[in-house]
Write a structure and sequence with these properties.
By secondary structure, this protein is of the alpha/beta class. It is built from eight helices and five strands. It has a five-stranded parallel sheet.
């Protein structure tokens, strides 16, 4: 059971340089959790790809549906006080802090590719590659 951010989810469904790592992560730990915010962020990623003509409208809808199926029942509300405290004590946005707060609340790791978050929260956040290595 791990918390993942939107980028990790996106790498699973949109082919790119980190897709293989995201697939390996899912095999190692198939229980991915996220704050409800992931949906809006993921939609935004899809719209960016759509506007750049990297994917079609139909593909965007299919990808969103697959991601929602993966995350069904694995979305959590995050305590606003925790999010604001984390943001206030770091240089992370409230958006990023939601993922950190959820990992803390659930007593698990946040897995991300965001180096800024990894540097600021080394004890509770790690990269995909590090997590896969730690779990091997």
């Amino acid at each position: 059971m791990i918390v993942v951010d939107t980028n990790v989810i996106a790498y699973l469904f949109i082919p790119g340089q980190n897709s293989a790592d995201s697939e390996a992560l899912l095999k190692k730990d198939p229980i991915w959790l996220a704050p409800g915010l992931w949906r809006s962020e993921f939609r935004n990623v899809l719209v960016q790809y759509l506007r750049r003509s990297y994917i079609s409208f139909s593909q965007a809808l299919q990808i969103m549906s697959k991601a929602e199926q993966l995350m069904k029942g694995r979305e959590y509300e995050v305590n606003s006080v925790h999010v604001i405290e984390i943001s206030d004590n770091s240089s992370c946005s409230a958006y990023d802090s939601e993922y950190v707060a959820l990992a803390r609340d659930l007593g698990t790791k946040l897995v991300t590719t965001d180096q800024k978050i990894i540097r600021q929260f080394q004890d509770e956040v790690c990269s995909i590659k590090d997590y896969i290595g730690l779990q091997s």
